[in-house]
Amino acid sequence: MGLISGVFMGMIFGIALMAGWRHMMRYRSTKRIAKAADIKILGSLNRDDLKKICGDNFPIWISFPVYEQVKWLNKELSKLWPFVADAAELVIKESVEPLLEEYRPPGITSLKFSKLSLGNVAPKIEGIRVQSLKQGQITMDIDFRWGGDPSIILGVEAAMVASIPIQLKDLQVFTVIRVIFQLAEEIPCISAVVVALLSEPKPRIDYTLKAVGGSLTAIPGIADMIDDTVDSIITDMLQWPHRIVVPIGGIPVDTSELELKPQGKVAVTIVKANNLKNMEMIGKSDPYAVVHIKPLFKVKTNVVDNNLNPVWNQTFELIAEDKETQSLIFEVFDKDIGQDKRLGIVKLPLIDLEADTPKEAELRLLPSLDMLKIKDKKDRGSITVKVGASKHSFNLFK
Fold this sequence. Notes:
C2 domain-containing protein, 4-stranded antiparallel beta sheet, alpha+beta, Immunoglobulin-like, membrane, C2_domain_sf, 25% helix, Synaptotagmin_plant, elongated, 2 domains, transmembrane
């Protein structure tokens, strides 16, 4: 009897234990599902929603980071940097060197890379924000920092001057890069990549220039020329909405949807200038005006000899691609033997223009668009312009 009762009691105890375990697991599962639902609801709330719910008890430690931290990606990038750098050097040389030639400043006969090495120090990605996920595309912004040890030498040639190697030293880059991946069904699953620099915050690229085995004074103004060329390339070709489209995988793909398309044309009349700065020792300046939206496509007026108050009244049409970010750049030069001297420059944002309302404005000329570079505070005169939508402006001012 004792044996039978022991077996019976053991079975009862085992069944009870199993039933209790099953009940506990079901209870825990129900609680987890309830917590997951609560967390999902909290995850959908923004800062304002939480403040309404919590009132004055809103915890100050709660934050909504704009960029996701990617420490793991920086570790992997450091490991892979020698291979990434080799590939990036090829892309930079193929993409940027033609731009250096196109934007080559007057007086320079050749401007290309003599040496290009991105060094051993990998960039640092401070964070990534996915902007949009739509059919066939992923758009993300990458907070990019780089204070590396690259070796970049530009070969610069000028008329009647031997080639001078100029080294870019102490290069530092601080910017937010917008990357768009166009997806594909075949491996590597990405058919093209779009790369651009966001205008806000403004891209910051710092460097110093040093002549290798020579002096920068051999070509007067070469440092400013290179600075202006780099700035023009960034603003004109790399700063959003401008972009570089790189096909990937070696398979021909249609990238037309990724390219920046013209929105329309702007009609610009350069009327006159007043009280220009005289750059001549004898006589007066011989001024002419230049206007552009993209530095690669400049148009200019006729030269008015020996006059500080020239009248041009010449009209041009310029193609615009994005009125939110682009501007009309007006420059006035003194025609001279050799290199012309800039008398002043000024910018008129396209966003200031209105549909069907031509705008006439007298704009004060500045020594530079970079306020940090302005040391000469003297008045440089003004330029009077008329600006309006061309009849071919289709959707520019909609």
